[in-house]
UniProtKB/TrEMBL annotation:
GO terms for molecular function: 4-oxalmesaconate hydratase activity; hydrolase activity, acting on carbon-nitrogen (but not peptide) bonds, in linear amides. The keyword Translocase does not apply. PANTHER family: N-ACETYL-ALPHA-D-GLUCOSAMINYL L-MALATE DEACETYLASE 1 (PTHR12993:SF30), N-ACETYLGLUCOSAMINYL-PHOSPHATIDYLINOSITOL DE-N-ACETYLASE-RELATED (PTHR12993). Pfam families: PIG-L. It comes from Stieleria varia. This is 4-oxalmesaconate hydratase. It comes from the Bacteria. It is an enzyme of class 4 (lyase). Its EC number is 4.2.1.83. The keyword Lyase applies. The lineage of its organism: Bacteria, Pseudomonadati, Planctomycetota, Planctomycetia, Pirellulales. Keywords: Lyase.
Length: 328
């Protein structure tokens, strides 16, 4: 795990190169498109894999450093990432993706026995340990529980994280979920992905804007239902069956939440409840024992109409949703 406090993006030096091209690879279902752009900085060559290709094409210089594609998980509270998208992140990690991890809330109000300060400190360390299990880069929270509001300042902070991660995939909450912290975190994540290429939107701290496509995906809402109790059917399912124990291992790092969830939400065992919700999504898929569901955000302003890097990267462990709306 690396503590990523929103550093400036780094450019890599490629020794012995007389020019400084950037190779960006976009894989489409039907073809590979190579886009080569020149940089003014000498001796720089960066190869970005947008489709998790594991070896550079043989025509590229052997001295060209490789940057694997990045996925950024943005959720509200410590443990939300693990519950909603831990399996998907682990599938991406298997394929060489760089993972980035941020809980926007500090978790400080998630206890009946600790003070806010003590709770925030405990939950910060729990989140860091979980991040190590997932193999992700950690970013610190930006506000307290129940203080998630859509403001320009908060947008600037989340935009800094998106820019620093150089993510081509942003994973976040469902737009409609059971509580406000989740919905506001989703809105901030979506807007930050939209604005990461706007030079006139200054981030906090300052991170240089850039424009590369970013595709946003929404996880299932907690309980797989809207706040009105309606079942949400995802666009597609990611198999997490053989990763469920690793996902639970990451979630178990948030040990302080057992007491809080028992008292506040009637989750007798948050680990077992997570297994049950994972099985429900698996039943919805009609194929997997455990699964996580995803909906792709509309592409306008974010990426090309046919950009779908999550489906593409995990195509061997994905099944499309039944168009009739199969339910558990």
């Amino acid at each position: 795990m690396q503590n990523a406090t929103v550093p400036q993006p780094q450019r890599l030096n490629g020794p012995g190169l007389s020019q400084s091209p950037t190779f960006r690879i976009y894989e489409r279902p039907a073809e590979l498109n190579f886009v080569i752009m020149s940089w003014s900085v000498p001796e720089v060559c960066v190869l970005t894999y947008h489709a998790a290709l594991l070896a550079p094409p043989p025509s590229l210089p052997s001295s060209c450093p490789t940057i694997m594609p990045a996925a950024l998980a943005i959720c509200a509270h410590p443990d939300d990432i693990e519950i909603l998208m831990g399996g998907t992140l682990l599938q991406l990690a298997r394929r060489g993706w760089d993972l980035h991890y941020v809980n926007l809330c500090d978790g400080s109000r998630g206890s009946t026995t600790m003070s806010r300060q003590e709770c925030a400190a405990v939950r910060l360390e729990e989140a860091k340990r979980s991040c190590e299990v997932l193999g992700a880069k950690f970013y610190p929270p930006i506000y307290s529980d129940m203080e998630a509001v859509y403001t320009t300042e908060n947008l600037q902070k989340v935009t800094a994280i998106v820019r620093a991660s150089k993510a081509s995939i942003v994973l976040t909450h469902s737009p409609s979920d059971y509580m406000e912290d989740h919905e506001i975190s989703c809105r901030l994540a979506v807007s930050a992905a939209f604005s990461h290429g706007m030079p006139n939107l200054e981030s906090i701290p300052p991170v240089e804007s850039y424009y590369e496509p970013v595709t946003v995906y929404h996880a299932q809402p907690v309980g797989n239902r809207t706040p009105l109790g309606e079942l949400v059917v995802p666009h597609f399912y990611v198999d997490s069956t053989d990763l469920i124990e690793k996902k639970i291992e990451a979630l178990a790092c948030h040990a302080s939440q057992k007491e809080w969830l028992d008292v506040s939400q009637g989750m007798d065992s948050y680990l077992e409840t997570t297994r049950q919700l994972s099985r429900e999504v698996g039943r919805m898929s009609r194929q997997f024992e455990h699964a996580e569901g995803w909906r792709r955000h509309l592409h306008w302003g974010f990426c090309n109409s046919d950009d779908d890097p999550l489906r593409l990267a995990l195509r061997d462990v994905i099944i499309e949703s039944d168009p009739t709306g199969a339910s558990a």
